[in-house]
Every structure is written in structure tokens, then in C-alpha cells.
Amino acid sequence: MNQFSDRRYVFATAIILVALVFIIRLFHIQVVDKSYEQYALSNAQSVRVIYPARGLIHDRTGKIIVYNKAAYDIMVTPRLLEPFDTTEMCRLLDITREDAKERLRAARSYSYRVPSVFIKQVSYENAALLQEKLFQFPGFYVQTRTLREYTSPVASHALGYVGEVDQSVLDSDPYYQLGDYIGVSGIEKAYESYLRGQKGKNIFLKDVHNQTIESYQGGRLDVQVKVGNNLTTTLDMELQEYGEKLMSPYVGSIVALEPATGEVLSLVSAPGYSPDLLVGRSLSSAFRVLVADTLNPLFNRALMAQYPPGSTFKTIMALIGLQEKVISVKTEHSCFYGFYVGNIHTACHLHDTPLNLIEAIQNSCNTYFINVLKSTLQDVKFPNTAESYDNWRRHLLSMGFTQPLGIELTNELDGNVPESSYYNRIYGENHWNYLTIRSLAIGQGELLITPIQMANMTATIANRGYYITPHLVRDIEGEDQIDEAYLERNYTTIDTSNYRPIVKGMDLVVNGGAGSTARNARIPEIRVCGKTGTAENPHGNDHSIFIAFAPKEDPKIAIAVYVENQGFGTTYAAPIASLMIEKYLTREVKRTWYENWVMQLLQPVVPERKKDTTANGTEE
Fold first, then answer.
1. What average pLDDT does the structure give for the chain?
2. I need a labelling partner for 265 at 20 to 30 A (CA). Which of 5, 68, 178, 231 fits?
3. CATH number for the domain harbouring residue 167
């Protein structure tokens, strides 16, 4: 009897232990471990991502320049697929059976459980047809998206474009999923985090047939979509359109700034392209066409082309000479068709002689500014040429040369002002002097400056000694202010007082008498200050350069125009700059005869469809 009783206790204990194991396991599954709950929910829920409308982009006057239009992506979740009529779906979406099979394979390889794009950007008509019969195609749904639309076919380099994310983005930013869109270039890229908004999501319950029946928990777990922030740019679209019109026959660029703020009024790169080419399903094919064009319309010459500044650089030579007190406004030099030392000769054009500093700027005298370089590099304050050169270069760095200025666009390149070590390596230490590098005095030789740096140089002179970093956005909706870097003044190492004679010389370049090199840039009732330049191009005709600001007092616009292969600065670049200034300051161009002459009668020398952005040469 006792033996039987002992066995009963053993069996009871075993049963209790087994029960405890089951209870503990059930408690773990139902309370502690959420994976089974999530698995069950994933088979009973449908999560739909809601994509936000991208922020609108306005010009400085409030005019909309970039907005959105509806597009429709057909999404697929492979694990929810059931046998369906492939022929009917192909008919509705206007694709082939082979194409459909390939798209399904791609979706399965991406994820079996996560929705991905089956076919993107279908027409409204096709999307509507599929939506009506969607019950026949379990696992598919229509996702509403937006594409960019433009009010004018200009400013493509400044605005940039939106494209589908690549694998590098997917790997680095968890916000994006396969098939998402992102800013690829321009403002769209620079301000992506503001423009894109924030995705929302709706969670639905499904029945046994995978049909949506109701919102999960009454929508309490849904995430509200947040529309992207609108941007107000610094661009004046009327001026931008006009600049692209003027540059349409040419290769080159225009950069116009507001000196007091650093705001970019116009950013023209010619040849350009219409921004609506890089939108939608045709983006890839259009991009290939643009890449194949040997004039490279995708190349942003305003920020990426590196040119010798030519005679425009003489203004900077004058500033440094005055600052270092190696010259004064009254310093004179004689010139007889050029600079001569022994068998060394640098040519110059015919003009009165001798000239003082202001007259030398007005007449663009090569000899005068080579002598300025001589005085600067032979300054007794420094023990050798290399140290005086480094001091000369220090002034250039303060003006924003050599390094990118810092505009929002990511493709801005730097310029080139060699260090003294560069010449030490070439000629040997203490074996070079001003004669060796005299071409720098007239903006040639190794000097390279981008058009935006030239415009910034002009704005610095207009401001009499400071610049604000050029930028393309003046206001972000919902933000108190833009980046502080675009609000701060950057002062140069040149005293304000030394800018006054340079401004006077640039005034005479346009408004002076005989010897003035840009009298054709005059505008009635507007005092324009400018400087011409011409850079020799070893691959073809010379390049035409002109910088200017206006009005002389309280300048509202500073501009740099670069026209490739078109000769002297006064011939092409100066008239274009003059018309741009008139357009901006008066809102209309009254000199229609002059406009017609620039657009039609000049008959530009059109280069072969190949680009050249690294020219060197002599100066006018």
C-alpha cells in the first residue's frame, strides 16, 4: 500500500512539473517574447507607407518654380501573392509577360515580406484601371507618389533633380527604402532633409482572403505624414530666364550676386538643359543623351570650370600693391607696347603713357601691373622672393580664392594659386623671381578661378572689403534662419580705403573716355563699374571675360560673365553683363536694339561639340 502511495506522489509531482513547464512556456510566449505576437500580427495586418509631398521651391519674389504632380507606383508584396491572370495584368499596365516575370523576380530577391516597386510611375489611366480590378491581384496595390514639375525650363544646375535611391543610400540611411526618391544634385540634394518631409503609415487589419477590412486599433498606431518644407531661393527667375536666353548661342557662364547679402541672383551655365528632362521614367534615357553630348550640358561651368581670370585680376594686383604700400594711387609706369627686360617681352596694346594706378586699370595696362608684381615681390620687408610671394598669396586667400567658397551645391570646385613651394620645386629655391612668374600679374600663368569666385571677387570690391558666402536659399519654411555661414561677413586683409581707387578705375573702364576698355557696357542713368578680361585659349579662340557691379554707390548686383572662344572681354561678355544689369535694376531692357545685336548680329563663333575649361594665354 505504501509502495503504491509513493508511486502516486511521483506521478503527481511529474504532472505538476510538466504543467509548470507548459505554463511558464506559455507565459514566455504570450507575455515575454513578442515575436510570435508580431508574426501573428504581420499575417493579419497590412502596413501602407504614405509618402509626403515634396516641399515647393519659390524664387526670391515668391513665384513657384518647382512643384509636384501625382505619379503612381504599382507595389507588390511577394508573400501575399496568389495565382492571378498575368495576361490581364500585363494588358492593364501595358507591359509584356517576360517583363512582369522579371519584375516579380526582382521583388522576391529584394524581400519576400516587404513591399517593393513592381512598376513605377504609371499613368493615371493605367493606375485607375488596375485599381478597379485590384481584388483580382492579391499582393499588389497602388501607391501614390509625386514627381517634380517646373514652371520654366531654366535653372537646372541650381535646382538639381530628384532620382531613385541607389544601394549606397540604402546602406547608409535607414529612412530610405528601395524605390524611394532623393535629391541627386543642386538645391534638391543640398536641402533634401527639409524638402523630403517625413513618411507616414497606415496599419489595416486583413481577413483570411488578405482583403483590408478595417483600420488597426482605430488608427491609434498610424503615423501622420509630414509634408516637406517649402524653400524660398535667392534666384530671380526673370533674370535667370533672361541670362539663359542671352547665353543660348554661347558656351560659358553667368553668375550674378547681391553684394550686400551674398544671395545668388542668377546662376547660368551654357549650354544647359531643361530640368523636366530628368523627371519620371524617361530620366535614365535622357541622362544618357546629356552625358553623350560632347559640350557636356550637365557640367556646371559656373561652379566647376576653372579659368585664368585675365585682366580682371589687375584689380586684385592693385589692391595688394596699395595694402603693402609698394605703390600709391600716384605711382606711374611707362608702357611702349609692352613690358621689356632684356630679351623678355610681354605685349600690351596701344594707350597713353605714362599711366597712374587708376589710369592703368582704365586702360588695362599689362606693363603697369607687372611692375606692381615686381615691387610686391621685391619688398624689402621680406628676406626673399618666396616669403614675399607667400604674403601676396595670403591676401588672395582672404578673398576666397583657391578653396571652394561654400555654396550649398556639392559640386563646387576650388581655384588654383600655387604655393611658393611649387615654384621652388620647378625652378629651385631662390632661383625664381617676379620675371619668372610675371604672367600672374595679368591673371594668367598658373592662376585658375571659377566663375562664382570671380563674381564673389566683384562683390567684395563692390562692398569695399568683405563678402558674404554665396548661397541659393534665403528662407526655409518652419526654420528661424538659414545657416549662419550665409549671414556672416568675411573681411579681406585689404583696408577699406584701398578699394576706393579701384572702384574709381572700374568706373572709368565703363564710363571714361578714350582708352576705356568697356564703354559698350554703359547703361543710361545707371553707373556701372567693370573690368574686361581676355584669356588666350591654346585649343581655339580666346575666352571673353567681364566683371561688373552697379550702381557704383550702394551696389545691388555684382556679376561675372565668361564666354568661351569669343575673344576680347569687351566684345561679348561686357554687352551680356550690361544687359543683365539693366534687366535686374530696371526690370525691363529698353535697349532692344542692343539686345538684338548681342543675340543675332554678333554671329558667335560656335565651337565644335567638345568642352574646354582649362585655357591659359595672354591678356588684352
1. 88
2. 68
3. 3.90.1310.10
Same domain, 105 and 225: yes
| DSSP assigned state of 30 | I
Q: Which of 142, 172, 168, 155 is nearest to 278 (CA)?
A: 155
DSSP secondary structure letters along 303-336:
HH--B--GGGGHHHHHHHHHHTTS--TT--B--S
Considering the domain architecture, whether residues 467 and 493 belong to the same structural domain is answered as yes
Question: Is the omega angle on the peptide bond into residue 153 within 30 degrees of 0, that is, cis?
Answer: no
* CATH number of residue 445's parent domain: 3.40.710.10
Model confidence pLDDT, tens digit, residues 426-446: 999 999 999 999 999 999 999
**Rounded CA Rg of the chain:** 34
Domain presence at residue 289: no
Instruction: Count structural domains, the chain.
Output: 2
d(CA 480, CA 476) in angstroms, rounded, equals 8
What band does 21 get if pLDDT is binned at 50, 70 and 90?
Answer: confident
> Do 436 and 397 belong together in one domain?
yes
pLDDT of residue 2: 55
CB 579 within 8 A of CB 246: yes
Does residue 188 lie in a domain region? Answer: yes
Say whether 184 sits in a helix, a strand or coil. Answer: coil
**Prediction pTM value:** 0.85
Q: Is the pLDDT of residue 351 over 70?
A: yes
The region that residue 340 occupies, defined by phi over 0 for left and psi between -120 and 50 for alpha, beta otherwise, is beta
Whether residue 101 lies inside any domain: the answer is yes
What is the Cα–Cα distance from 86 to 568, expressed in whole angstroms?
Answer: 66
Instruction: Report pLDDT for 15.
Output: 79
Q: State how far the Cα of 18 lies from the Cα of 484, in Å rounded to an integer.
A: 69
> What is the average pLDDT across 82-86?
89
What is the residue range of 440's domain?
Answer: 241-275+300-601
Of 23-27, 30-34, 242-246, where does mean pLDDT reach its minimum? Answer: 30-34
Same domain, 339 and 356: yes
pLDDT band at 39 (very low <50, low <70, confident <90, very high): very low
Q: Are residue 185 and residue 252 in the same domain, yes or no? A: no
What are the percentages of helix, strand and coil residues in the chain, rounded to 5? 40, 20, 40
pLDDT for the residue 615:
37
Q: Are residues 524 and 544 in the same domain?
A: yes
Rounded distance between C-alpha atoms, residue 234 and residue 312, angstroms? 26
- Pick from 563, 560, 320, 312: nearest CA to 456: 560
Q: Is 609 contained in some domain?
A: no
| Same domain for 271 and 189 | no
Tell me: do 332 and 198 sit in the same domain: no
User: Is 429 in a helix, a strand, or coil?
Assistant: coil
Give me the DSSP letters along 352-366.
-SSB-HHHHHHHT-H
